[in-house]
Design brief:
The complex is a heterodimer of chains A (409) and B (317). Chain A is mainly alpha-helical and 409 residues long. Chain A has 15 helices and four strands. In chain A, strands 2-1-3-4 form a four-stranded mixed beta sheet, with helices on both faces. In chain A, helix 3 links the parallel strand 1 and strand 2. The radius of gyration of chain A is 29 Å and the shape is elongated. Chain A starts with a helix and ends with a helix. Chain B folds into two domains: 2-224, 3-Layer(aba) Sandwich (Rossmann fold), CATH 3.40.50; 229-300, Alpha-Beta Plaits, CATH 3.30.70.100. Chain B has helices at residues 44-51, 73-79, 95-105, 110-123, 139-150, 169-184, 196-202, 220-226, 243-253, 275-289, 303-311; strands at 2-12, 19-29, 33-37, 59-64, 67-68, 80-83, 157-161, 188-193, 205-210, 213-218, 231-237, 260-264, 267-272, 293-299. Chain B is globular. The chains are: A mainly alpha (409), B alpha/beta (317). At the A-B interface, helix 1 and helix 9 of A face helix 2 and helix 3 of B.
Chain lengths: 409, 317
Amino acid sequence: MRKLFTLIFKEVRVTFRDPGAVVLMLVVPLALTLAVSAAFGGGQVTIEALPVLVLNHDAGDIGGYLMTAFDSAAVEGMVNATLVEDERAARAAVESDAAVALVIIPPDFSEQVARAGDDQEAAAVTVDIYASPLRPIGVSVVRSIVVSFVERAGMTAQGVRLVLGDLVAAGHLAPDDTAGMTVVGERLGARVETLEMSGVRPAVEVISVTGRAFDWLNYFAPSMAILFLMFAATGGGRTLLAERQGGTLSRLLVSPTSATLILVGKMSGVAVAGLLQVAVLWGATSLTGADWGEPLPVLIALVLLVISATGLGAVIAAWARSEAQAGALGTTLVLAASALSGNFLPRMNLPIWVQTVSLAFPNGWGLELFTRIQAGATLAGVLPLLGWLALLTVIYYVIAAVGFRRQLV
Amino acid sequence: MALVKVTDLVKRYTPDGANAVDGVSFEIQEGEIFSLLGPNGAGKTTAISMLSTLIKPTSGTATVNGYDVTTQSLEVRRSIGVVPQELAIYNELSAYENLRFWGEMQNLHGKPLEQEIEEKLALMGLTERAKDRVATFSGGMKRRLNLAVGLLGNPPLVMLDEPTVAIDPQSRRYILDWVKEMNRKGVSVLYTTHYMEEAQELSHRIGIIDQGKLIALGTLAELTQLVGQHETLVLKLGTELTPGSEDFVAKLKTLNTVSEASATDGEVVVNVPSAEAALPDIISIASGLGVSVRTIEIRELNLETVFLRLTGRALRD
């Protein structure tokens, strides 16, 4: 046990005496976290009076009701929708960031809605949104409103169809009484119109993964910590190869110390250095206002992430043939994992398949964990995620062990 | 009693490859300095790696301090100190921290370890720089620290693998003196080198190794007797060796008065029974081929000669 601690303390001491490593582990992530949050508002994103343009080509009436969706009580104050006729000017307004988005309602929108939900021909309802790439959050809000409206309109159309079917079944309408059906359908539709016009507006929910407004600082504090933990941990694995090339590993192996203890000590030292790193970043960003969530789940998530990242570093060290190769491999993996996981962009904006692929890396699990913890999840609530991350970690260490055995036996 | 006993030791790194160590057998007695002398690639480092249990032999047996290197590696490692060719120390740590770390790896703790550290720092003249990071040390100081680490725990056998490669003459002198000092205090030494003069100066016995095989073994006197009463002529040529020079060496070898001849680094080394008898023939051939001979040096029998005689090549070919 004494030797294990000796190996760990040596590793931590060597790591933190390297000024370059300290900059990369602590200074850069802290600076990036503060810079990104400052660039995007430094705190909560307020969604209000989003300028939205609506171009209605619909030959029917339903397209006109989309405007009422933008005026509904649920989104009151959040969106400022304007009906336009000049598409070119409207597109220019979006491109110059004068408007968040241009909603283009197609000429056959009412027909599409009427057909929607029909079991015979389940066609999609298409609405184009010409969006500003600078306002991903705002565009998400607009999209949510449009989707919610289309779904409600489609359900209304379905409802009318159902009522007509019931009337035919009850014998109040003949199956071939097209004129009668038209009258009933129009009255039902008018009733819906009346309902709409009388102020019963469809409720629109703004979908947010966190359940509350997105906060850049809260998101990027753990995100940058995880990113630079990954760099440090994979770099720590690379130092094992440096020791092999430099001769200190051979010297360790000819001392009365088992190879297993040497490896465990080395990787434990890397993990302890990583723990210190994330602890400092947690504390420092918290002082600047970042809210990581409840301390206990945060602590356990960080510990498991450190062990997992160290495991990935061990995999690289076990299978790379040289320090240079390990360095290249580690950097490539970390950058790819970070891009896929949402270390650079909010994870919820990434396609679902990308988010799924990212779960092959500690980054993906880490950001999933912190998203939920910051949304108020307790330790029990994130236990399944911790379990999966633990399983991934075990897999890493098994692969590393096979590689080390091949190298050192 | 034999502290090290090696019997038919073989190491082959790949199934189809050549033997890096090919059936080597020797013993090292207690209190002895034993050198393995050979050119680069001869198998010296491989031999020392097997004896220090870093790598496993392909076949053959070896014991150190009575422990088998294959089945009792932990006990072997408790009996040895190793000074590798590389500077196997941590630049980010101080001299004191390095000795403390490596001492703990050697199962030393507490007061005995502190005393060891103090002693080794003093022996190596590093006491005043004990708390300074090794990164700030000169190359010679790093070498001394590297040596000090290998001596921690005062093991009965210290293995040094070419410890003086690429260092300044002063540091080299320091190391050679300390090897002799260690030995005077009772430490047995296995020393590998490709410098003939080091082997000659330090060793009680020398094993000459080439291409994995031990081609000669004995004291300096025994080894030089192998080549009989011969003298060595070293001809320094006036110009770089030209194609004509290769003819020169080939023609020398045909002379009755010449036993062996080889060329290296602008010199031609000639082993002759009698310098007096051979010189006129040598000069005549040089003149005939237009080879300019600047100086001729007559050397006493040494290991260089022994190696040349046994292998047909100079030690530093």
